[in-house]
Design a protein that fits this description.
Length: 341
């Protein structure tokens, strides 16, 4: 009896930790769907969305100040990469596809990349740990994945020649769902980065340094496929996605990737207890994983094998602060939430 009581107390305590009360809404109500989120240090948090909105916190997400980038009020800024509270790059998907940079906390913005080609659609950016090497991925142009790179912290960008990038197949494309379907993993020892990205739509694949791998994730429709990848270490990665037109469907919405560096083998498995629906973003918070989407938020404590639903509230993007104890989520109607452990 005593043992059972102790067990019950432990269960209640862990339910509380996972419970909805841990999720605090910090800001909400603005007419913007937030999909860009960057937490460069303990104090600075940047979010971006459509209708030209940029939100910035300088006090670790206690409060946000908002602006609509002058002249870009109609742009959909689906991703942001910030280096501190002053310096950030924001990416607008299309018409025209562009990247703006600020070095004064959002007071002024410089256009550092623009492509007006028809069909051009940017999906996500990522920067390596050195904050100099960065990449932006876009939907295929001329049947090849669009990639542009920077080596100076985003001041200058160079589009790669289509012949140098992977070929897209079967109307394969990319989702601009949370700015997290591309990851640059910098290896200082060899001064090179590994590039990982996931495609979606009619076909959904993982690319490692532009080499494609078929993955067991739902695909075949324009609304299906992989939306996000996180690479916790050199042994594996976690991919999430699903079908955003049926966002409670749990079939093939998550893939666990294992790398074997010696044999160069890459293997895939689907978790026994996947997230509870379509997920647009997966992020690492210490050793814990979080995934979120329009049908809710899940946590996993075992590398993505088992996922527990913590809320059905809709969020597009999640990121953890550097210490892994604070997670920030952002989503529809300018909503920003904080999850503390
Ligand atoms: C909110 O933004 C959308 C465009 O994204 C616009 O059509 C709509 O009129 C806006 N609503 C309000 C209340 O301003
Ligand atoms: C969503 O998925 C469920 C489970 O497979 C299925 O029963 C349902 O018909 C689907 N709904 C739509 C709108 O496709």
């Amino acid at each position: 009896m005593y043992r059972q009581l102790v067990y019950l107390v432990i269960l209640l305590v862990s339910a509380r930790v996972y419970g909805q009360q841990a999720l605090t809404i910090i800001d909400s109500g603005r007419n913007t769907s937030l999909r860009g989120l960057s937490i460069p240090d303990d104090n600075a948090v940047w979010v971006t969305g459509n209708n030209g909105y940029v939100g910035r916190s300088v006090n670790g997400a206690k409060s946000f100040e908002w602006l609509q980038v002058p002249g870009y009020e109609r742009q959909d800024f689906r991703d942001v990469e910030a280096f501190d509270s002053n310096t950030a790059l924001i990416m607008a998907v299309a018409e025209p596809a562009l990247i703006l940079k600020t070095s004064d906390g959002g007071k002024s913005w410089k256009r550092v990349f623009e492509d007006t080609a028809t069909g051009m659609f940017l999906d996500a950016m990522d920067f390596a740990e050195d904050r100099q090497h960065g990449i932006v991925i876009g939907d295929p142009m001329q049947q090849h994945v669009f990639l542009a790179v920077t080596e100076d912290g985003g001041d200058h960008w160079k589009a790669l020649d289509p012949s140098a990038t992977a070929e897209a197949v079967d109307s394969e494309a990319f989702f601009a769902a949370s700015g997290t379907n591309v990851r640059l993993i910098w290896d200082p020892a060899v001064e090179m980065a590994d590039l990982l990205y996931v495609s979606g739509g009619k076909r959904s694949r993982l690319f490692i340094n532009n080499e494609p791998f078929d993955i067991p994730i739902i695909q075949g429709k324009s609304t299906t496929g992989a939306n996000s990848i996180v690479v916790p270490d050199s042994t594996g990665a976690i991919i999430v996605g699903g079908d955003f037109s049926n966002d409670t469907l749990r079939t093939n919405n998550c893939v666990l990737v294992k790398f074997d560096y010696t044999t160069k083998e890459v293997t895939f498995e689907t978790p026994p207890e996947p997230p509870h629906g379509y997920r647009s973003c997966v992020a690492l918070a210490g050793k814990r994983l979080i995934s979120c989407g329009t049908s809710g938020v899940d946590l996993s404590d075992d590398g993505g094998q088992h996922w527990q639903l913590i809320t059905r509230q809709s969020f597009h993007v999640a990121r953890a602060a550097r210490d892994g104890k604070k997670i920030i989520l952002a989503g529809p109607r300018g909503t920003i939430a904080l999850l503390l452990f």
